[in-house]
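User: Please predict the structure of the protein below. I'd like the answer in structure-token form so I can feed it into my own downstream comparison script.

Assistant: Understood. Taking the following sequence of 258 residues as input:
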Amino acid sequence: MQKHSANNLEFYQSDLLEGTRHGIFTRHGGVSDAPFGALNVGGTVGDDVTNVHANHRLMYDVLDVNAEQACTTWQVHGADVVVSNGPVANRKWVARADSIITDREHVPLVMRFADCVPLIMYDPAHHAIGLAHAGWRGTVRGVGKETVRAMQDAYGSQPEDIRVVVGPSISIDKFQVGEEVVEAFETYFGATDGLMRRDPADGTAYMDLWEANRRDLVSIGVEQIEIMGICTASNTDDFFSHRQEKGKTGRFGVVIEL
């Protein structure tokens, strides 16, 4: 994983995704004012829409991708996957879903994050990409696994060919959860061994979304997984964190294009 700077923007790129144009962006280099400063790409958090549009354009320009072909979803914390061949006319998003895949060149996929897990996928064998948004609800609904299945169905992808980067998101150290979340993980995974730890002082549960998504992907046959290991809640100077900043913050962008 390498960190790059261009036009005052900072973003990460992974060797695992070599063969694509992609960027995992920090919050630096945009035009938004606090508390959305500076590269906020979330249009529903209270930021000025003009600033949000300008920030999107800055991201696309740095990666040299076509902003007019960018495709995104209305993220709803689920596990539905949409197959996209390009933007939908007269609409900013292609569907209400938390995962999007394509095998079309020059169709950038983009999503917004502020603690939830970005899952960035590339199948070089079948020339296809995917991008998923995995909050805890999406994780226990198998959004990562469903994205792999969708790539299998749509493009003939094989799990062992699909490369996945687990992007910046909240870590187990910061992700304190209630018992209803623990029960949801137990139901989906069968147990929480290696996925949860409890505070010895008060028994409060903390959940590991990185390991949960890695485990889910491995269960369907994915072998090539890179976990960036950057906690958004512990690094608010560089990334937005909905939890750490108590909801008054922006969203950082992830973009990938064939």
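That's the full token string. The chain is about 20% helix and 25% strand.
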